[in-house]
TrEMBL record, chain A:
<dbReference type="InterPro" id="IPR007644">
    <property type="entry name" value="RNA_pol_bsu_protrusion"/>
</dbReference>
<feature type="domain" description="RNA polymerase beta subunit protrusion">
    <location>
        <begin position="50"/>
        <end position="409"/>
    </location>
</feature>
<feature type="domain" description="RNA polymerase Rpb2">
    <location>
        <begin position="631"/>
        <end position="676"/>
    </location>
</feature>
<keyword id="KW-0808">Transferase</keyword>
<keyword id="KW-0240">DNA-directed RNA polymerase</keyword>
<dbReference type="InterPro" id="IPR007120">
    <property type="entry name" value="DNA-dir_RNAP_su2_dom"/>
</dbReference>
<feature type="domain" description="RNA polymerase Rpb2">
    <location>
        <begin position="199"/>
        <end position="372"/>
    </location>
</feature>
<keyword id="KW-0479">Metal-binding</keyword>
<dbReference type="InterPro" id="IPR007121">
    <property type="entry name" value="RNA_pol_bsu_CS"/>
</dbReference>
Automatic annotation (TrEMBL), chain B:
<dbReference type="GO" id="GO:0003677">
    <property type="term" value="F:DNA binding"/>
</dbReference>
<dbReference type="InterPro" id="IPR036643">
    <property type="entry name" value="RNApol_insert_sf"/>
</dbReference>
<feature type="domain" description="DNA-directed RNA polymerase RpoA/D/Rpb3-type">
    <location>
        <begin position="68"/>
        <end position="353"/>
    </location>
</feature>
<dbReference type="InterPro" id="IPR033901">
    <property type="entry name" value="RNAPI/III_AC40"/>
</dbReference>
<dbReference type="GO" id="GO:0046983">
    <property type="term" value="F:protein dimerization activity"/>
</dbReference>
<protein>
    <recommendedName>
        <fullName>DNA-directed RNA polymerases I and III subunit RPAC1</fullName>
    </recommendedName>
</protein>
<dbReference type="Pfam" id="PF01193">
    <property type="entry name" value="RNA_pol_L"/>
</dbReference>
<dbReference type="GO" id="GO:0005736">
    <property type="term" value="C:RNA polymerase I complex"/>
</dbReference>
<dbReference type="InterPro" id="IPR050518">
    <property type="entry name" value="Rpo3/RPB3_RNA_Pol_subunit"/>
</dbReference>
Length: 1157, 355
């Protein structure tokens, strides 16, 4: 039943065949020469890539390729004593999600795991070959389970993969649920996307002392290191953790075999300015009298931090140079040349930056960032655990081989002996602590519980990116909006407060790449004319006109015709010969071509344009609409390609097909945006007309949309979340956006369309409070259901002794012995559908008094004591038992989950918000007859104060009102997608206003209202129409709290703290200061002593210590003076007395000096 | 308005007194002159007397169906017209389901929500035949009992439960309270009906509309419940409101301030979405705009949006176009008389309190 008070002569839905809008200046200026409606590409993209596809893709990559690579790299373990005893992993793969129950394997579904607190995991299965017995006979064993791995929902290993809606429904799964998370011990866990500075790339920056530095974080499978080259006092040094002091860079070059200064300068570049800058460094080297490689190495050996075993420093530095210094550049057969060239390039870029400050790198530039996804994180964890398991097996084997045994152990018995992998993975994902010593990784909060407060909240979690920096830094740089975020990261969706700007969210069409094979790409580059560096002299490297080719941060060689090379590479990519996510970026400033195929880059699809003409033509779109063409076909046919942030710099991207305009030649346009609205993410996408709002308002809405109540998933009533808020009559917004339809918010709405009048009313609407119509509430507006889960475990104590659930005890007449058992069913559990009140028992549990009984004797009723689970609710509220679920947990204990439902109607103080960051509490609830009504008999559902508008500048909300009003009158959902006016994805205000006029409303949306109280017309026209309102989770009922006297803390005898403990309200130091300033001494005395913890003490006037009162003799006594002569009575806070006693126990004597009062 | 002694107000004051002016930006003179002696100095008495009221007051019914009516109420102050509106919404009693006894509900819709939906279903029962229920037991004079028992067979299609499936139980509740204290006692039910309601009511006390969706049942789900309807007023809960809504608007008056001819006239006619204006042919190809149907004006202010020197929009202050949309328990005209009765009662109460 709709909440809106019924609108009379409600206009019949008409087709509203509006004539095409009259061409205006704007519609002509928006240069859509032959508008191809490309919108259909968006749903097609989401169909193949999905909302959280990057998570699923990366996990799929891990379980199909990554895991195999890890095992291949560590495929053989052998006993140290006898290398003949070995085990070899032949293959590894992930089985079907299942669980082992009593030696039986049962397949499991995600929903089963949620309900029974299990982990949704699948066996990791290996095929092994190993030796058995003394003869070392080879044995092969296929399908050997080495552990269980939590499985990401909807990944290849998941049972839900590729299932359609009906099948998903049968699995108890919501088809709109995006997947991409794990279920560990019954809770849904997301591994958040981690943002990092990209690895293996040179970053030129200034450090905090203003020195120019070039730094590289090298990361290979074996080593991770950070190399910094830094210019200090015009001399250049290498900083490396392994050296105690900075090493002059020329020394390093010499140590790597470039002995002549000329060669160094040649490698860096022939420009005399480079020579000038290097002069001092070269001079320093010369003054140290280092001329040969040997001398250089010796010099460096002295500076090594940790000498190896036996304190031998000799030769250490060479090893460091080989293994640590720019570690990702390989040294093959002692050939240091690639490293030298790499160092030279680093130097050159540094010197470039000094000469021309434009060439500094920006750490916040999105192209310098890499996103680490769940697949990579789980992969690291798995690699560590796999190695641990193997070393453990080897250790055990060695221990065993010492003992003479008739039949020697074989490895197959050892690798499975404990569940290193199972428990390791489970623990990491459920705690979120990634502590991997092997990779020096210590991260907290990597995984988080998926918030199921609303559908938007869970989607928002899946697209969230957490930063690596500490959040306390005050710097604004990393928090600021980066221009390179355009289209990749949502500009609106970021939290307020400390993580503002650091935590980001992916935009709608962003894809995060996964790793790609390097070998074939490398070969392709060479065959396209890249000259190998080893064949070039230092001089030739920087020959003018030729560009260096960098491949994933490594120098591959140089190319004389960079543009042609880049074009060739791109042609290969467009024709599908190389992966679609390979990026080719020509950096004119650095004279470099960067080819990247590494994982973690953000990229997005764009339409390719030839000289400004879109390759996607109307017939392509028709094929797409007819279902003949899919998004992948567009990629394969070279109509669309993915560009990453770096390659975007080589592109000129138009929003629409463009004619020459604003000094931009049409022919220079290389790409066309698929849809401008994809600049926003999922959560920001549900704001209508966000481009008309002041920008922080959109950010506020992004935070608030996640707190809105609504429908959570199609299976919401079958879920067992610990707290679930549902809106009874959730609606889809009248004013939608295309994003809303794409993500399914129109199916799982979180709000209601309320008719809002913008006027002041009653004075209870100050400070953003809203006035609500009681009849609307009666009819179901804002009604919500809060479901809470209460879990009881029936403990087991061994020997077959366990808790038991007893029938409700009755006396002889069949009347319950305790009133609070009325909600119980005959089995001792609360009955579903029963009304349950405060203090009612919901599980009538009994616990055995003794747990170590002699076996054999049965326990009788008398051996049990009552330990019922008592419901703690709000007095006077009617809550109902929704469901009672019984299951056995992983330890085989009986777990009882009672879900208790509470239906609430809005009350004064409940929080509501529109979709424009305009939150407000309900200020008062007014009878319908007191509400104003319009000429058409429409009475608003709520009244909002107009003062909410001027300072917030949320014009979008006003347009939403107009559009909603036009929508209800003409019977068509109106759209308000961001920047959607030129492409028809947002209705223009002018058109909306014309629709309004056509249906008898004012052009400006303002109605002539009559006062409901006095009956005469109001003195102003009132802006009135439907706005989508969200009910937020903050409700008075959960928060209101007051107490007179009540429980006290045992130790201090002061009132308890907090609402949950029925605590007192603290008169804090600031309030106390006020009272002191005011001079209200008696009030302070009363608050701080009498109302808190008054206590009577006996004080000895002589020694000043506390005595006691002997009730038998009716005298007080000082135990210090051993008499009761000088005792005085006084009152003090109990906490004070406690302090004195505690001090005494620490050998501090606090003495009270009393004067006569 | 002519005053009895023949003297009258100047035109502009008379306009202010009797009309609300709806300017393009805001309406003015909305409240009128309340004080009877406001123009006493000018020799004009604007007080209301019974004779004057009787002479001027008129009701004209424009439309009357079972469900709604529209009538003109002329010659009355806004406050009285509003009183009728308020009483219609909040104080005319009806019957609505107040208590629901759930026997079984395995549908997806929660008990409370289901009960709430049942409460909002309009019943076809004349509330005048019933008493308010106080602390006493429900009996045939204050309670109507309905039963709903639907189930969806396993393996069948999904089922929609409509309001028509609510079955009237004229004999009262069929649900028995907990086991009788002594055997041999009659099973006590939740109502104690003296006689069947079939005897007291000439038509069955069913729901008004049979096609309101109550719930949907999936295979294997069932609802069994008994619903007790009692008398109440809309002030307490909107379900007892006898009207979907009741409201009035003041009679529009559209005045052309100057002669509008030819092109301008056509433009003006085109502007109005509800065709308030029409064209009069003056012959010789001359055309003039005239106000044809001022009553249709919805006050969209299109005709004054760009230029407000052509047309003036006014509202007649004492002419109300009153609309009542009944929910069905009583026909709209009866509802209005009920409202009048209630107002009368209130007046009597005030008079008796004062005297
Ligand atoms: S206000 Fe609107 S409806 Fe009334 S006359 Fe003018 S244009 Fe026509």
């Amino acid at each position: 039943m709709p909440p809106a008070t019924s609108a009379p002569d409600a206009p019949v839905a008409e087709g509203d065949a509006e004539a095409p809008p009259v061409p205006t200046y704007r519609s002509l200026a928006a240069p859509v020469s032959n508008p191809v409606d490309k919108f259909a590409l968006l749903p097609a993209f989401l169909k193949v890539r999905g909302l959280v596809k990057e998570h699923i893709d990366s996990f799929n990559y891990f379980i199909t390729k990554g895991i195999k690579n890890i095992v291949r790299a560590n495929n053989r373990i052998e006993a140290r004593s006898d290398p003949g005893i070995y085990l070899e992993y032949k293959n590894i793969y992930i089985g079907e999600p299942s669980v082992q129950v009593d030696f039986r394997v049962e397949t499991i579904t995600p929903h089963f795991c949620r309900l029974t607190d299990r982990t949704y995991s699948a066996p990791v299965i290996v095929d092994v070959e190993y030796t058995v017995g003394k003869t070392h006979a080879k044995h092969r064993k296929p399908s050997f389970t080495i552990g269980y791995m939590p499985i990401m929902l909807r990944s290849y290993a998941c049972v839900l993969n590729g299932k359609d809606e009906a099948e998903l429904a049968r699995y108890g799964e919501c088809p709109l649920d995006p997947g991409g998370y794990f279920i560990v011990k019954g809770t849904e866990k997301v591994i958040l996307i981690q943002e990092q500075l990209s690895k293996n790339r040179i970053i030129i920056d200034t450090d905090n002392k203003g020195r120019v530095t070039a730094s590289v974080t090298s990361s290979t499978h074996e080593v991770k290191s950070k190399t910094v080259i830094c210019m200090d006092k015009e001399k250049i040094y290498l900083h490396l953790n392994q050296f105690t002091k900075p090493i002059p860079i020329i020394v390093v070059m010499k140590a790597m075999g470039i002995e002549t200064d000329q060669e160094v300068v040649q490698m860096v570049g022939r420009d005399p300015r480079y020579g000038d800058l290097l002069y001092l460094s070269i001079q320093e080297c010369a003054t140290e009298r280092i001329y040969t490689q040997q001398q250089a190495l010796q010099y460096m050996d002295d500076k090594v931090t940790y000498a190896g075993a036996g304190n031998i420093k000799d030769g250490r530095s060479k090893l460091i140079l080989r293994d640590v210094f720019v570690a990702h550049v390989p040294v093959n057969n002692g050939n240091f040349q690639p490293k030298c060239i790499y160092t030279a390039v680093m130097l050159r870029r540094m010197l470039d930056a000094i000469l021309n400050s434009d060439t500094f790198d920006d750490k916040d530039y999105v192209g310098n960032k890499r996103l680490e996804l769940s697949g990579q994180l789980v992969s690291l964890l798995f690699e560590d655990l796999f190695k641990t398991m193997n070393t453990y097996a080897v250790d055990r084997m060695n221990k065993n081989s010492d003992m003479a045994r008739s039949s020697p152990l074989d490895f197959s018995q050892l690798i499975m002996q404990q569940d290193v992998i199972t428990s390791g993975l489970e623990r990491a994902i459920s705690t979120g602590n990634w502590d991997i010593k092997r990779f020096k990784m210590h991260r907290k909060g990597v995984s988080q519980v998926l918030s199921r407060l609303s559908y938007m909240a869970s989607l928002g979690y899946m697209t969230r990116i957490t930063p690596q920096f500490e959040k306390t830094r005050k710097t604004s740089g990393p928090r600021a909006l980066q221009p390179s975020q355009w289209g990749m990261l949502c500009p609106c969706d970021t939290p307020e407060g400390e993580a503002c700007g650091l935590t980001k969210n992916l935009a709608l069409m962003t894809h995060v790449t996964t790793d790609q094979e390097e070998g074939p790409l490398r070969n392709l580059c060479f065959s396209l004319g890249v000259e190998d560096l080893s064949l070039l002299s230092g001089e030739e490297i920087h020959a003018p006109g030729s560009f260096l080719v960098m491949f994933n941060g490594l120098i591959l060689g140089k190319h004389r015709q960079p543009q042609r090379f880049a074009n060739n590479m791109r042609t290969f990519r467009r024709s599908g010969k190389i992966g679609e996510f390979v990026s080719v970026f020509v950096n004119e400033k650095q004279h470099c071509i960067h080819i990247a195929s590494d994982g973690g880059r953000v990229c997005r699809p764009l339409i390719i344009a030839d000289k400004g003409r879109s390759r996607v033509k109307e017939h392509h779109m028709k094929e797409l609409r007819d279902g003949i063409r899919s998004f992948d076909d567009f990629l394969r046919d070279g109509l669309i390609e993915y560009l990453d942030v770096n390659e975007e710099n080589n592109a000129l991207i138009a929003l629409y097909e463009h004619v020459d305009q604003d000094g931009v030649q049409r022919s220079s346009i290389t790409h066309i945006e698929i849809e401008p609205m994809t600049i926003l993410g999922v959560v920001a996408g549900l704001i209508p007309y966000p481009h008309h709002n002041q920008s922080p308002r959109n950010t506020y809405q992004c935070a608030m949309g996640k707190q809105a109540m609504g429908n959570i998933a199609y299976n919401q009533l079958f879920r067992a979340d610990s707290l679930l808020y549902l809106l009874v009559y959730a609606q889809r917004p009248l004013l939608t956006t295309k994003t809303i339809e794409l993500v399914g918010y129109d199916k799982l709405g979180a709000g209601q369309n309320a008719t809002v009048a913008v006027m002041s009313y009653s004075g209870y609407d100050i400070e953003d409070a809203i006035v609500m119509n009681k009849s609307s509430l009666d009819r179901g507006f804002g009604r919500c259901i809060a479901m809470k889960k209460y879990t009881v475990t029936s403990e087991k104590y061994g020997d077959g002794i366990s808790d038991r659930i007893a029938k409700p005890q009755r006396d002889r007449d069949g009347v319950l012995i305790k009133q609070n058992m009325r909600a119980l069913d005959e089995d001792g559990f609360v009955a579903p559908g029963q009304i349950i009140r405060n203090h009612d028992i919901y599980v009538n549990k009994q616990t055995p008094k003794v747990t170590n009984r002699t076996p054999g004797t049965a326990l009788t009723d008398r051996d049990y004591r009552d330990s019922p689970a008592v419901y703690k609710g709000v007095d006077g509220e009617t809550t109902v038992v929704d469901r009672v679920m019984l299951c056995s947990d992983t330890n085989d204990k009986l777990t009882i989950k009672c879900i208790i439902r509470h239906t609430r109607r809005p009350e004064v103080g409940d929080k509501f918000s529109s979709r424009h960051g305009q939150k407000g509490v309900c200020g008062t609830i007014v009878q319908q007859e007191d509400f104003p009504f319009s000429e058409k008999g429409i009475c608003p559902d709520l009244i909002m104060n107009p003062h909410g508008f001027p300072s917030r500048m949320t014009i979008g909300k006003m347009i939403e009102l107009l559009g909603g009003k036009a929508g209800v009158s003409c019977g068509r959902f109106h759209y308000g997608s961001i920047f959607g006016e030129p492409s028809g994805n947002a209705d223009k205000v002018e058109d909306i206003s014309h629709t309004l006029v056509k249906h008898g409303f004012s052009y400006s949306g303002k109605d002539f209202l009559y006062s409901g109280i006095l009956g005469h017309p109001l003195q102003a026209y009132v802006f009135m129409g439907p706005i989508y309102y969200q009910k937020l989770k903050h409700m008075v009922l959960d928060k209101m709290h007051a107490r007179a006297s009540g429980p006290r803390v045992l130790l201090t005898r002061q009132p308890t703290e907090g609402r949950s403990r029925d605590g007192g309200l603290r008169l804090g130091e600031m309030e106390r200061d006020c009272l002191i300033a005011y001079g209200a001494s008696m009030l302070i005395f009363e608050r701080l002593l009498l109302s808190s913890d008054p206590y009577q003490v006996q004080v000895c006037r002589k020694c000043g210590l506390l005595g006691y009162y002997n009730y038998k003799l009716k005298t007080s006594f000082c135990s210090m003076c051993k008499n009761g002569e000088n005792m005085a009575k006084m009152r003090m806070p109990y906490a004070c007395k406690l302090l004195f006693q505690e001090l005494q126990s620490m050998n501090v004597v606090p003495r009270l000096t009393l004067t006569e009062g | 308005m002519e005053s009895p002694d023949g003297s009258s107000l100047p035109d502009f004051l008379e306009l202010q007194r009797t009309r609300v002016l709806c300017k393009a930006d805001a309406p003015t003179h909305t409240e009128g002159f309340q004080y009877s002696g406001a123009f006493a100095a000018m020799g004009v008495d604007t007080s209301v007397s019974v004779e004057k009221f009787c002479k001027n007051f008129k009701i004209e019914i424009n439309r009357l169906t079972d469900e709604d009516m529209e009538f003109d109420m002329i010659g009355i102050d806004a406050s009285i017209a509003n009183a009728f509106r308020r009483i219609l919404i909040a104080e005319v009693p009806t019957m609505a389901i107040e208590k629901v006894f759930m026997v079984d509900n395995t549908s997806v819709i929660a008990d409370e929500v289901l009960s709430h939906r049942l409460g909002l279903i309009p019943l076809d029962a004349d509330p005048r035949l019933f008493d308010y229920i106080s602390d006493d037991v429900p009996n045939e004079r204050n309670t109507i009992v309905y039963k709903l028992h639907v189930s969806c067979e396993k393996g069948s299609q999904r089922l929609t439960v409509k309001s028509g499936q609510l079955e009237w139980l004229p004999e009262g509740s069929q649900l028995t309270m907990a086991s009788p204290a002594q055997s041999g006692d009659n099973q006590r039910t939740y109502t104690s009906f003296g006689q069947s309601q079939q005897n007291t009511s000439e038509r069955p006390l069913d729901v008004k509309y049979n096609d309101i969706t109550i719930a949907r049942l999936g295979p294997g789900q069932a609802i069994e419940l008994e619903a007790h309807a009692v008398k109440g007023v809309g002030k307490v809960h909107a379900k007892w409101s006898p009207v979907a809504t009741a409201w009035y608007r003041m009679l529009p008056e559209v005045v052309l301030l100057k002669e509008i001819k030819n092109g301008d006239a056509e433009e003006l006619v085109k502007k109005c979405p509800v065709n308030v204006f029409d064209i009069e042919d003056l012959g010789k190809g001359e055309k003039r705009a005239v106000v044809a149907k001022p009553r249709a004006c919805t006050l969209c202010r299109e005709c004054v949006r760009l230029a407000d020197d052509q047309v003036e929009l006014r509202r007649v202050r004492d002419h109300f176009i009153f609309t009542i949309e009944s929910t069905g328990s009583l026909p709209p005209e009866v509802l209005f008389t009920e409202a009048v009765n209630i107002l009368e009662e209130k007046c009597e109460r005030v008079i008796s309190e004062l005297s």
